[in-house]
Amino acid sequence: MRIFQVDAFTSTRFTGNPATVVLDADGQSDATLLAVAREFSHAEVAFVFAANGPDHDLRLRFFNARKEASFVGHATVAAHAVLLTLGRRGAGACRQHSGTGIIEVNAQVEQAAAGSQSLIEFRQAAPELDTPLPFKTTLRVAEALRLPATQLHEIMPARIARRGSTRLLVPIADARQLDALTPNLDTLLALGTELGTEGFFVFALARNSDELSTEARMFCPALGIPEDPVSGNAHAMLAAYLWDLGQFGKNSTAFIGRQGRQMKRPGEVNVKLEVDQGALVAAHIGGSAVIVSEGTLAL
Length: 299
Prior knowledge:
Elements: E1 2-8, E2 17-22, H1 30-39, E3 44-50, E4 58-63, E5 68-69, H2 73-86, E6 92-98, E7 101-112, E8 115-125, E9 128-129, H3 135-145, E10 159-163, E11 165-172, H4 185-195, E12 199-208, E13 211-220, E14 225-228, H5 232-244, E15 254-259, E16 267-276, E17 279-296
Parallel strand pairs: 2-3, 4-6, 11-12, 13-15
Antiparallel strand pairs: 1-2, 1-17, 3-4, 4-5, 6-7, 7-8, 8-17, 9-10, 10-11, 12-13, 13-14, 15-16, 16-17
């Protein structure tokens, strides 16, 4: 079986979010897939399967060292970048079946001075947003993050978003404060169990004219991930959060999410909102990916 190491949400090797991609996984048992994921435990593994129905073009299953995940955004970007590079899919739309159903994954190749660059984009339905977290509880989260209470955003509340997975979105006042976060992961793990969330997505918002950008860090001790470099799924949740609070200008339905700098793995997520009759329907999550290595997996 062919295996690839890919950095997603970046065009620069050794940055962004790493994923492992294994091709032609048809016929392998779940035990084998989990064993492979444990072997490459530094990153989520996307296994590519042939389609088994007329309503999709391929199937992806995602595993980490502990269990199967229904959907992983950066591993989706990584897998389609590999398939595009190998000519096993073309530019345009491809229907992917995974644990959350069938989604369209669009791909294009752009020519740049340094060579061609793949751009992969997938559509994620808008998540559900819980009511704002009580401020007393937010203060407990801030303490676990070792974030001074004065650095919490004065207006925007912390809220849990749900779509396949759950994340607590924690807005802060100043992006520079992200550098100082040194979370107590045991306390975060306990808080996550209490609140029913798998991760904590701490972000700061920047506005230049009508253009939005964010910088963020994410901690997921419940998933065995102390810190995640760059998350596509969390940025889809953030899109819904910002839309609900009316943070987009009249002519703006997009933003750039930056994450991973503190881990020396900076990456960028391009987020475009899909709005119908004034309601957010979905977020389109896009980014580049670059293959770091490839080889043969012996079973």
